[in-house]
Design a protein that fits this description.
Elements: H1 4-7, E1 22-26, E2 33-37, H2 42-54, H3 96-111, E3 127-131, E4 137-141
Antiparallel strand pairs: 1-2, 3-4
């Protein structure tokens, strides 16, 4: 038999969480902003803010801004213990608004090559739609 630790490396080493409070810093507008730690002295904060604003065109604000990112740089793979039994979640129904958002987001990710279609009869998980602070939807996958 295997332990849950064998399946999830995060359970072996917990993630480090920052203890510092962050301050939102607009670069172009409210949607195009970043955060800077509140313990940084004012002079350094101003230098960081100026450098970020000067290079704001380097940020990828949407997936379509990230064309050509090689999967050699980052790829998500499902690490599965050989002894684990395949599991398929029961399909959850989404409301019309959420379903349209999922379809739109999936099409965006497919069009820029961030995801690809694969067909499994097992190891399935439902997407979860979460409301962001600005009222828009965020698609999460577990």
């Amino acid at each position: 038999m295997f332990a849950l630790v064998d399946l999830d490396p995060q359970m072996v080493e917990p993630r480090l969480e920052g203890e510092e409070e962050l301050r939102q810093v607009p670069l172009l507008d409210e949607e195009h902003s970043t955060c800077i730690g509140t313990t940084i002295v004012a002079a350094e904060t101003e230098l960081i803010h100026k450098a970020l604003k000067k290079n704001v065109d380097l940020f990828a604000w949407t997936t379509s801004n990230m064309l050509g990112v090689s999967s050699d740089i980052i790829t998500h793979k499902l690490s599965v213990n050989k002894e684990a039994r395949p599991v398929a979640q029961k399909k959850c129904k989404l409301g019309k608004e959420k379903r349209l958002e999922v379809k739109e987001e999936a099409e965006k990710l497919l069009s820029v090559g961030f995801i690809r279609e694969s067909r499994y009869t097992t190891w399935l998980v439902n997407v979860v739609m979460v409301t962001k602070a600005n009222g828009k939807w965020k698609m999460c996958m577990g």
